[in-house]
Each structure stands twice: as C-alpha cells, then as structure tokens.
Design brief:
By secondary structure, the protein is mainly alpha-helical. The chain has helices at about 10-15, 20-25, 35-45, 55-75, 90-100, 115-120, 120-130, 145-155, 160-170, 175-185, and strands at about 75-80, 105-115, 135-140, 155-160, 190. The strands form two sheets. The chain has a three-stranded parallel β-sheet. The protein is globular and about 55 Å long.
C-alpha cells in the first residue's frame, strides 16, 4: 500500500460504525467525558488522541470503557475487517482490550484476506497469536474471476473484457472493494438495471 493506515486502523472505523449519533448521546450518560473525547479523536483518525501524549494503557482504558458502555445498551459485536493491513499499534491495543472486556457481552471479530496475510509477516504473526489465544479470526479467500464476474452481473453493471480485467486486478478478489470500485466508476461501467448494489441516485 502506498500510505500508512490511520492510527489503530481498522479499529477506529469499527468503533465509528458501532456508534451512530444516538448511541454517542447515550454514552454521555455512561462514560466520563475525558474518555469519550479520547475515543472521539481516534474515530476521527487523529494520530494524537489527546493534547498531551497518552500511554497506550490510558487509550485502551478509554476504548474499553466505550465498548463496555455500548455493550450495556446492547450486546456488542465489533468486526475488524482487512486486519492484514492493520496499523502496527492495533495489535498491542487488542491485547489490552481483551483484558478490559473480560466478562462483558462484547466480542471483537477479526477478518483477514489469507493470501495478503501470508505476505505481511508482522500482521500474520500477530493474527496467529490472537487466534491461538482463542479469539476469533476468520481467514477469507478472494473471489475467483468467475465469481467476481457474477457479482458484476448481479449489480446490473456491464463491463467489457478490459474493464473486467481492471476490476479483477484492482479489487484483488475482495467483494467489498469490487463493489466500492463499481460504485465510484472505476472501472467505468454501463448500468443495465437498478439493483441494490448502487446507492440511490448514483449512475456509474
């Protein structure tokens, strides 16, 4: 990849997805403002979670309180996708969160592309240690070319062979990335029908 992931990626995105505006307002009654401010900065992708540098234990405590508070409202499942490209600081954070969340109705589920995990030794070693500790790690294989072609057809898109080849290469077989590329018009696709794959009002 040509740029470094945000701090704690993809945890920051998973926390954001788990905390819509209504949940964020509920958290104000369950957690201290200082801790909420730390996690707000992380969700925003800030490299500095506070005006002064914090120890990882302090950040883990704030995230742990955030997650335990969410779990008080509803049992919490936090899905971290594409951990093969995780930020290096994610793995020690997950170790601390495992301890912080013990006994809470909260689960962190890691998803990784197996082929990309094999070529990223740091993440592979950390993911295997996570899995060996009994925490859930799901290894995913990419779509084969024929399966990716079926996804394109199911979305009502029409690509010529050159565009299909571009999509296969750019997505690496990831269905989520392929859908994102189709929606953004890379590669350019002619829309044959209205399907749920396209956001309302979009026209690739």
């Amino acid at each position: 990849r040509d740029r470094s992931p945000p701090p704690l990626a993809p945890l920051h995105a998973a926390l954001a997805a788990a905390t819509p505006a209504v949940r964020r307002r509920q958290l104000e009654r369950l957690a201290a403002a200082e801790g909420l401010a730390i996690v707000d900065r992380i969700i925003g992708g800030s490299a500095a979670p506070a005006p002064v540098a914090l120890r990882i234990e302090q950040v883990a405590l704030a995230i742990g309180v955030w997650m335990r508070s969410l779990a008080q409202i509803n049992p919490l499942l936090l899905i971290l996708d594409d951990v093969q490209w995780a930020a290096p600081d994610l793995w020690p954070m997950l170790t601390l969160l495992r301890e912080s969340l013990a006994g809470a109705p909260a689960l962190i589920l890691l998803l990784a592309r197996d082929d990309e995990l094999r070529i990223n030794p740091e993440s592979r070693t950390a993911a295997e240690q996570w899995n060996a500790a009994g925490d859930p790690l799901i290894r995913l294989d990419g779509l084969r070319n024929a399966e990716l072609d079926e996804l394109v057809l199911a979305c009502g898109a029409e690509l010529d062979q050159a565009a299909l080849a571009q999509l296969r290469t750019a997505s690496g077989g990831s269905p989520l990335l392929a859908l994102s590329l189709l929606r953004s018009g890379v590669p350019a696709a002619r829309r044959r029908s209205t399907k749920h794959c396209w956001p309302a009002g979009s026209a690739p």
